[in-house]
Amino acid sequence: MKIRTVSLLFMATLLAGCVSAEEQRALDEEKCRSYGFTKRNDAFAECMQRIDLDRRAEWRQRNDFDGWDRPIVVYHPVIVAPGDEP
Q1: How many other CB atoms sit within 10 Å of the CB of residue 67?
Q2: For residue range 14-64, what is the model confidence (pLDDT) as tens digits?
Q3: Which of 12, 59, 84, 86 is most solvent-facing, going by the fewest CB within 10 Å?
Q4: CA-based nearest residue to 30, from 47, 16, 43, 46
Q5: Which stretch of DSSP H or E encloses residue 71?
Q6: Other residues' Cβ atoms within 10 Å of the Cβ of residue 32
């Protein structure tokens, strides 16, 4: 659990340097404008919301697979030779 938290903080720090929240919003607004929506109406707001929901879904999907959270199964066969039975 601690490793997952550290890795998430590291990724957040790494990604924070790439695009700020304001820059991301500007990119999202530009994308909605490219679809033909204009600011200050319901369709534009819905476009922005869908982009945000898609981003969150992608983030959840990427973080669903975490090899550190799976249980470790160790298989060690015990061979009992004839005559060694209790």
Answers
A1: 5
A2: 665 578 899 999 999 999 999 999 998 999 999 999 999 999 998 888 776
A3: 86
A4: 47
A5: none
A6: 20
